[in-house]
Amino acid sequence: MQLGRFHQVPTGGVAQRPRRGALPRSVVTAAAPGEKLSALELLRRENELLRQTLDVANVPVDSVVEQRASATATAPRPTAPKTSGSSVTNAAGAELALLDEAGAVAAPEDYWSPCVEVPENMEYVDEYGPISPIPNHDGTMCFKWDNTLWSAAEHFKYRWNVFKNIRAAIDQNEGGFEKFSQGYKYYGFNRGECNGQTGIWYREWAPGAKALALVGDFNNWAPTDAHWAFKNQYGTWELFLPDKPDGTSAIPHRTKVKARMECADGSWQDKIPAWIKWATQEWNEVLFNGVYWDPPEKGAPGEVDPDKQYTFKYPRPPKPRALRIYECHVGMSSEEPKVNSYLEFRRDVLPRIRALGYNAIQIMAIQEHAYYGSFGYHVTNFFGVSSRCGTPEELKALVDEAHRMGIIVLMDIVHSHASKNVNDGINMFDGTDGMYFHGGPRGNHWMWDSRCFNYGNWETMRFLLSNARWWMDEYKFDGYRFDGVTSMMYHHHGLSYTFTGNYGEYFGMNTDVDAVVYLMLVNNLLHDLFPNCVTIGEDVSGMPAFCRPWQEGGVGFDYRLQMAIADKWIEVMKLHDDYAWNMGNLVHTLTNRRYAEACVGYAESHDQALVGDKTIAFWLMDKDMYDYMAVPGSGPQSMIVDRGVALHKMIRLLTIALGGESYLNFMGNEFGHPEWIDFPRVDSYDPSTGKFVPGNGGSHHLCRRRWDLADADFLKYKFLNAFDRAMCHLDKAFGYMSAPNTYISRKDEGDKMIVFERGDLVFVFNFHPTQSYQDYRVGCREAGPYKLVLSSDEEAFGGYRNNTKDSDVTFQTQSGNYDNRPHSFQVYAPARTCAVYAPAAWTDKDADRKPHGIPGLGIKDLGPYFSR
Transferase: present as a keyword of the record (predicted)? Predict the structure, then answer.
C-alpha cells in the first residue's frame, strides 16, 4: 500500500515514495508464492538471501561510501516518476541505494545512518489507507493466542458489540469514520464560503452556553453584531466572518482571539477556543490567549520562514522492525538553563540522536499545557502546539528534519485526562461540570487533580479521535505513546489496586468499557489511515489482548510499555550487597510478558529522572558522581564510580537485549546524566492538604541536559555514551530485538552469570563483583565459529581490556548438549562485564578504526540484518 507521494513544485509531477530496504530484484523474496513458512525459517532464508547479496557484491565499505558520494553529486533531479534506479549493494543489500525509483538519494555522510535526500522542490503529501470493514466475528479471535481467555468470552463479546454499534452509528450519522475523525475541518477556525463570500468559519460545541461571541485583537475585544454566533440544535455555535473588501482575512494571522460566553450559571467568561491551534502567554500576563494561526503564504518544501506555512519535503521513514526510542522533552533539551526551542532541538539534538543509533524519538509535552512543571501531562489546549518552544511551523520543521535522518517521530499524547484549569483549558468550558467529561466525582481524578473524559459521549469521541488524527495529518507524526492508559481502562484508575493476573480483574465491573472501546476505535482509525503508524500504550496492569489487533477483538496497540523492569532495577540497586542480586528473578522480570504481545522495554524513563526519584547512574554512584567522574590520569578515582560505570552498561544491555521487542531511553540517561529533573517552580500550597510546598525560585538549573559532560574527553560520561551508541548499532546490524528466537540457557546464582541467545548473537553477563571466569562454557544453537563483537570491557567504554575484540580470538564450538543447547564454546568472562558473541563471518576487529566506524564495535560492514 502506498502511503504518500512526492509532488514536484510547481509543475505537479508525481514520484513514488522512496523504497528503502528492498533487496535486489534477483533475490527479492525468501518464500515462493503461496508457500507458508515459520517465522524462524523465513528469517533463516532472508539471512541466506542477504549473504548471497554480499557474495555477488563483494564491495568494500570504503568503496561504497566513495561511490555513493559520487552518485549523490551527479544524481539527476527527475520531474516525473522513474521506472528504474541505480544502487550500490553491500552488506545492507539495497539499504545503501544511491538513487531509487523516485530519485531520492541517500546522503553519504554516514553509511550507518544514511540521510534521505530528495530532488529540489519536491513536496511530500500523505495518502491514506482505506477504513477497514468490521470483521464478521464475535470479538474472540484473539483467543487463539491465549485459550484461557475463554473464561472472559462474554466480556469480549459485549465490548465487541459496543465497538461495532459505535462504528455503525458513525457511518450512519456522520458520513463515515474518516469524516467523523476530521472534526478539526469543521470545528474551530477554518477557511470557507458562505453565500458566495470567502472568509472564516468559527464553530464551537458548547451546549450549556447561553450566548457566544468572538473577541480578540481584530475587534479590540469588543464584539459587534457581526461577531455573535448562532447555536444549532446540537449545541454547536456557528459564526462566519467574511474577508475584508481588500481580500485580507477578517482575523489577521497570529492575532489573539477568545470566545466570550454567557455560561450556564449566567456568568460571562472569555475562553480559549477548544480547537485552537496555538495559544500563547505574554511575559507580563498569567493567562494564555488563543492565537489565530493561518500563515497567508506557503513556503517552499523544507523552507523555514516565520511568516510562511511549512511545506514537508521528506517522506515518512518505513516502520522499523524494532524501535530504539529516544524519549525527549524539547523545552529542557538545552545545555543552558532555559526553555529550548523546536529549531534549536532540530539543529543541536537531532544529530546526537541519529549518531547514537536511535531510530525513533518520542517527544513529550507537545500539546499546550499552562503549567510547565506538569511535564506536559496536564493539557489545556489539545490541538495547540506548546508555544514555549516555538510555532506550529517550527515543530513541522523539526519533524521533517527527523524524517530526513530516517528517524520516526512519536508524540506523547494525553487522552487519559485533562487539566482542571478553567481559565486556559476546556474544563467547565460552557460553565457545566460535564461536557467532554464525566460530571460529579467520577469526572475528577483524585490522584492527578485533573478531569476524566467521558469516553461514551459522542462529542468527546469526535474531539479525541480528531485530535489523534490531527497531529498525524498536520504535523506528520508517525505514531503515539498514549499516556496513562491504565487509568483510562478501570474505574479505580489502577490506584491502590494490585493486579494478580486473575482475568476477573480485567474483565469485570471495574473495567471502563467505554474507555477500552475508545482505545479500540483510535487504534482502528490510526492503523487504517496510516498503515505504518506505531501506537504504544502505557499500561501497568497487564491487560490481556492489549497488543492484539482490533480486528481480532484486541485493544489494538502495537506495543505495551514494560514498566515493571524499571521498578525491578530500582529494587535490586537498593540492595547494596551485590551478592544478593537474584539472576533468575531479574531474567523473569525482563521476560515476563504475554505471548504475541510486543513490549517496549526500558531500564529508566523520564519517571525515574524526576525530582524525588533517582536515575540508575545516581542509584549506583550517588554523590561520588560529583567528584570522581574524571578518567584515570585526570582526577581522583573511586571504586564506587568504577562499580557504577560497569553496572550501568550491564543493566542497559541486558534490558535492551531481553526486555522487549523494542527499547526506550530518556534523553541524557544514556550517558548517566547526574541530578534529577526539577522544573522551575515557585513556593505554593498543596490544594488537597494545605501544606506549604517550597519552590526552587523559578530556576532552570536542573531543567536542562548537560551535553557537555558526555562530550568532555576527560570525564567518564563519554564511556557510557559510547557504550549506549554501540549497543544501538549492534541491534541495527543484527536485529536482535526483532529476532523470533530467544533462549536463556543459564541463570546461575552462584556464579552470578546470565547467558542467552537472541537471533544470531550469544550474550554473556557476569554480575559477580569479584570473580572472573576463564574458559567458561556457554551453550548455543548454531555451530561456530564465533568472535567477540561487543564487550563492556573495551577501553572505549572505560573497561580494562581484559576481554576485547582486538584479541581477535576465534571461538570454535563443540557439539553435544550443554545447558540444553546443541553446541557450546568457552569464553573468558571478567567480573562485572558483559559480552556479545557473533558468527565470526560477521565480525571485524578493526571495524571501529575505519571511516564511520562505531568505537568499540567489531561488526563487518553493516552486519547481516542492517536496518534503520
Answer: yes
Nearest to 637 by CA among 646, 650, 648, 624: 624
By the 8 A CB rule, do 339 and 349 touch? no
Q: Which residues contact 824 (CB under 8 A, 6 or more apart)?
A: 777, 778, 779, 780, 813, 814, 816, 818
Q: Which three cell numbers stand for residue 718?
A: 563519554
Dihedral angle at the C-alpha atoms of 148, 153, 157, 162, nearest 10 degrees? -80
Let me know if 806 is a catalytic residue: no
Three-class SS string for 489-536?
HECCCCCCCCCCCCHHHCCCCCECHHHHHHHHHHHHHHHHHCCCCEEE
Please check whether residue 547 is in contact with residue 554, taking contact to mean a CB–CB distance below 8 angstroms: yes
Give the end-to-end CA distance of the chain in Å, rounded to a whole number. Answer: 20
Residue ranges of the chain that CATH labels 2.60.40.10: 185-297
Task: Classify residue 833 by its DSSP letter.
Answer: E
Whole-number Å distance between alpha carbons of 865 and 321 = 10
Alpha carbon separation from 314 to 77, 158, 356, 358, 594 (Å, rounded): 15, 44, 21, 18, 37
Strand pairing category for 408-413 and 360-364: parallel
Of 361 and 34, the structure prediction assigns the larger pLDDT to 361
* Mean local confidence (pLDDT), 739-760: 97
How far from the centroid of its chain's Cα atoms is residue 129's Cα? 22
Q: How far is CA 362 from the centre of its chain?
A: 3
**Residue type, position 517, single letter:** V
- Report the C-alpha gap between 556 and 558 in whole angstroms: 7
Q: Phi and psi dihedrals of 217, rounded to 5? A: -60, -30
User: Which pLDDT does position 108 carry in this prediction?
Assistant: 57
CB 343 within 8 A of CB 304: yes
Averaged pLDDT score across all residues of the chain: 89
Q: What is the 3-state secondary structure (H, E, C) of 319-347?
A: CCCCCEEEEEECCCCCCCCCCCCHHHHHH
> Any residues with CB less than 8 A from the CB of 245 and at least 6 apart, and which?
none
Inter-residue contact 720 to 671 (CB < 8 Å):
yes
In angstroms, the CA 93 to CA 50 distance is 7
Place of cell 494525553: 414
Q: How far apart are CA 61 and CA 67, in angstroms?
A: 10
Burial 389-422 (b: 16+ CB within 10 A, else e): bbbbbbbbbbbbbbbbbbbbbbbbbbbbbbbbbe
| Backbone φ and ψ of 148, nearest 5° | -70, -10
The single residue of 123, 514, 538, 552 carrying the catalytic annotation is 538
pLDDT at 492: 97
- Say whether 41 is catalytic: no
**Quick one: 185-297 is in which CATH superfamily?**
Immunoglobulins (2.60.40.10)
Q: Please, which contacts does 389-392 make with residues 24 or more away whose CB atoms are closer than 8 Å?
A: 389/330, 389/331, 389/339, 389/340, 389/341, 389/342, 389/345, 390/341, 390/342, 390/343, 391/278, 391/293, 391/306, 391/342, 392/277, 392/278, 392/293, 392/310, 392/474, 392/475
Distance CA 186, CA 201 (A): 8
Backbone angle region of 428, left / alpha / beta, with phi > 0 → left and psi within -120 to 50 → alpha: left
d(CA 478, CA 411): 8
Is the pLDDT assigned to residue 30 strictly greater than 70? no
Please, are residues 313 and 118 in contact by the beta-carbon 8 Å criterion?
yes
For 662-675, how does the pLDDT look when each residue is reduced to its tens digit (9 = 90+)? Answer: 999 999 999 999 98
Catalytic residue chosen out of the listed positions 344, 400, 401, 483? 483
Cα–chain center distance at 733: 21
Q: Which element (helix H / strand E) includes 559? A: strand 559-562
Query: In whole angstroms, how far apart are CA 442 and each of 482, 491, 492, 513, 748?
Result: 21, 8, 10, 15, 50
Are residues 290 and 273 in contact, defined by beta-carbon separation less than 8 angstroms?
yes
In one-letter notation, the amino acid at residue 227 is H
- 297-301 and 360-364: which strand pairing? unpaired
Residue closest to 840 by CA, chosen among 785, 771, 790: 785
